[in-house]
Protein 1
Amino acid sequence: MDFRFSAEEEAFRARLRGWIERTTAEVFGRGDAIGASTASLLDVGDDSKWERLKEYHRRLYEAGYAALHWPKEYGGGGATLIEQAIYQDEVLSFGLPLYGCNQLAIDRIGPTLIFMGTQAQKDRYLPKMLTGEEIWCQGYSEPNAGSDLAGLQTRAVLDGDSFVVNGQKVWTSLAHRADWQVLLVRTDPEAPKHKGISYLLVDMKSPGITIRPLVQITGEAGFNEVFYDNVRVPKENLVGELNQGWQVSIATLMYERVSGGTRHPVERTINELIALSKQIEFDGMTANRHPYVRQKLSQFAIEARCLRLSRYRSLTAQLRGKIPGPESSFGKLFATELNLRVAMFADELLGSYSALDKGSFGAVEGGRWTQRALAARGLTIAAGSSEIQHNIIGERVLKLPKG
């Protein structure tokens, strides 16, 4: 593959970068725009940050960048493989979320509906996903069904023209901000574990839904637990066939794992770590001069570049009209584990200063490296833990026998 960019592609990059620089400075303020991390911008428990993120999304949509990977017939950009890769590289270099305030809808729920939804569902939901008028969340994990998603127990019983839902979900990102949710429910309790599951579209304002925020170790409150007490969901909100929701849910998870290999700004974090190494001491010398530190930073930079190049595989499959396959697990696994190792090495470099929390006196760079260290482990669990990704790669890609 020739990785050189054409003159038109370089012009696209220049236009995009100029737009990002202007827009982030106007919406977030120049200091935040260039220095903020994705995790900080997505602290959706902070009302002021959330409003700025919605404004950024509005501008993203108006500029035509909200969903470059969607087909044009559904309001997307219909972008080429290279344009999508350029967009991801530039947005992540600024530490910004790829899809504004409606990340879950645009990078996984919308593509699932495009691939498997009815025409009525596409017409009703896709336009407002793009504009950010309707925010979406994803009701998958339960207290006793996290990585073992097929063990879910939230029930839905068909009653006339509606499903009646009872149960609980947990770790639901954006539930307290969301207007709609994709919800996995068990509609046939007698079927085998991976059967008898259905995929519903649920109005989060429906009577019987209770949302309780969960504060994370970082102090942020983007996760929630959600309770369903006789919640009625119209029958036409079923995606795919009744009791065949596992196939639909896998499509959503595959899209999520593709983005899991792209949505973490690992290269930006490594560049910031290199800059940090020039400012602090390690083992009696400036950190960036120490052979051990130089070797670690070089290895991180090499792996980050490999991660960027590996994205082309999944993007190519999508441009050919396919949903992402199990190869997307490579990107998700590699990105989150690399991000974790980078965060842990920053913790090692800072030594005793790494114990200082955000806002504490003496905290290096405001304590953001401590925040990253606290958050990094969770990213290896979200969207399917690293152990699950290893199983998928071993069994579905390498065809190894089950242990």
Note: The chain has three domains: 7-101, 136-243, 261-397.
Protein 2
Amino acid sequence: MVLPESTIRIIFGLKLKELRTNKNLSLAVLAEKSGLSISYINEIEKGKKYPKAEKIMALATALDTPYDKLVSLKLTKNLAPVTQLLQSPFFKELPLEMFGIDGNKLVEIIANAPAKVNAFISTLIEIARNYDLSIEQFYMAAVRSYQESNENYFDELEKAAEAFAKKHELGSKKQLKADLLQKILEEQYHYIIDSKKLAENPELGRLRSVLLPGEKPKFLIHNTLSDSQKAFLFGREIGYNYLKLKERAYISYMLKAESFDEVLNNFKASYFSSALLINKNSLIKDVQRFIVSKKWDGDKLLNIMNKYTTSPETFMHRLTNILPKYFGLSNLFFLRFTNAHNTDYFVLTKEMHLSQLHNPHESAFDEHYCRRWVSLEVLKETEKLRKKGKYEKPIIGAQISKYHGSENEYFVIAAARPMVRTKNSNCSVSIGFLLNNELKKRLKFWNDPNIPTKIVNETCERCPISDCKERAVPASVVEKEDKMKKVEEALEKLSTTASSE
């Protein structure tokens, strides 16, 4: 296997440092013996430089080590795990630069205790396998962390969307209709749009879109898509082209990601699309008018939503771009739940937490989320209306959620509707705000007496509230913990009795 130059530099640096420390030589002493500067040897050991042959010979002589042994890529038993990590897919796929992490420094940390660090990373990989976590899920988690570390606001993408809108004179449009964006794709980027082929193929019927690249890209979209869904997909395609994003997925969702850049570019193109469809300055004005009202009005929020050619999910997600940056509301989370018709089982399919990890978050244990959350209540209301044939518009709800056994309180806004293409499911999207002084200052209706306050928890299995009428299943995790606590108390009592005899 041919190793990258950067890996060869790192391996050489690790060997040099190990040989030097094993012989109890300081950097200064090795520099004096080899005739090289302290700073140059330090750069070599950190994997930043690879010396020329004559300088390697000088180092080998100073260390009383054969030249061939020093340049060999074979590491000692102690450092062997480092090579395994450097060549592992796990290490190669870590998007270190995106988080401002120097890969060489990370390797230096690993080199100080290679066996232990390798065991730790191997444990993480094993956990991922046990919970059936795919590389795509790892990529998605990395992108979420990227969003969270930037408070989900990206100025370069905002400016790109503004520049594109200005170039095509889209600023005067109250709503960017799908057909207008389709026309731009066809005329400027020479796309051919086909809305029939996907529906004709049963195996591809679940896909919203497929791109067949070429000199004239063919963009297949499903004929059941709503205007807002088409507008988002067309906007995303424009984003890929306008931002010159080369590595990309060619279907509407991540079936299999080939690289982290592919997932990151999908996020960037999607962000561009939502910024194009929901003008930042217009949305800021809408939000300013909405939050000064002293009474909560879900219909007013729905009217703002309907002003733009977007789904509730795109609109609510767009709010998470604007609220932290322009309103100082950065302690928030975004959740997307789905549930199948005629069932009482809810699945958290998307989440993002800014500033700190709020609950609820995705459960790997297939547990039942607290039914008291407004995110689930609007879903239940949607299902009732759907069954009666009375559903007309998204169900909007608000709630103050107090965490059981905690001082944390959240103001949560949720919107739910039947899914357009997945005919047997409903979905809800929610934004939850930590109820702190900043929120109380900004959101004038936070204490509207018509907004219900409920004690909530994460999942039924982990909730000790004994009189919960909404409970879906017994508190099995709490019961198990109680039993273990009683065992520990009994053992402690036994130990105390034995020591006193």
Note: Strands lie at 192-194, 209-212, 218-221, 332-340, 347-353, 395-403, 409-418, 425-434, 453-456.
